[in-house]
Specification:
Elements lengths: L4 H11 L3 H21 L6 H10 L13 H9 L3 H10 L10 H21 L10 H9 L9 H11 L3 H12 L3 H4 L8
């Protein structure tokens, strides 16, 4: 029986107590659910892709030196080999090959979605007025969200064979309806 979203959320909450890391996981889940329709097989992929996004960093808070070993092992115990492979591949230090659209989409959505979130925090209107040109400009500023690996951002869009600006717009469109939940409304008062 496939892993359910509820089981994945329980595992994330068990291993990840930091609210910011949970929000990151949720933002990648949202992005990956949308990506299943754009880069995958739609409805038949949406649950697995969402779970991959939700759990991709689940072990990072408690076991940063082992990341993503624990998550990958747990997914394999659950019989979720495709998701385990995608989580392995997203950790580029392992040099796991990108074999499926799921593998490629997780890499293409992870760092860039986190970067979009960082852009939202410095804008008065957050994601609501964010444009790809603003994100691309911030990507050139190495001191802004310095931990975001720009090489992974580039590699992800290249693997998908898409234009960076188009992929940024796709992610903004997917995430904007969830701005309240993610806290991406910007610096507006009130």
């Amino acid at each position: 029986m496939p892993l359910t979203r509820e089981q994945a959320w329980e595992k994330l909450c068990e291993w990840t107590k930091n609210e910011a890391l949970r929000i990151h996981a949720r933002s990648i889940e949202i992005a990956m659910r949308a990506a299943a329709y754009r880069y995958g097989n739609g409805e038949s992929d949406v649950e697995a892709w969402g779970i991959a996004g939700l759990l991709h960093d689940a072990d990072y808070e408690q076991w940063p030196d082992e990341h993503p070993n624990r998550t990958v092992a747990w997914l394999r115990e659950q019989g979720e080999e495709a998701i385990a492979h995608a989580v392995s591949a997203h950790y580029t230090k392992w040099n796991v090959p990108y074999e499926t659209p799921l593998d490629k989409a997780l890499l293409a959505c992870d760092e860039l979605t986190g970067f979009i979130g960082a852009c939202c925090f410095v804008r008065p209107d957050g994601i609501h007025t964010l444009a790809p040109s603003s994100v691309k400009k911030k990507l050139k500023d190495k001191s802004f969200a310095a931990k975001v690996d720009r090489d992974e951002v580039r590699a992800g869009v290249e693997l998908l064979g898409v234009d960076l600006g188009e992929h940024i717009q796709f992610l903004i469109d997917a995430l904007k309806p969830h701005a309240d939940e993610l806290g991406w409304n910007g610096r507006r008062e009130g």
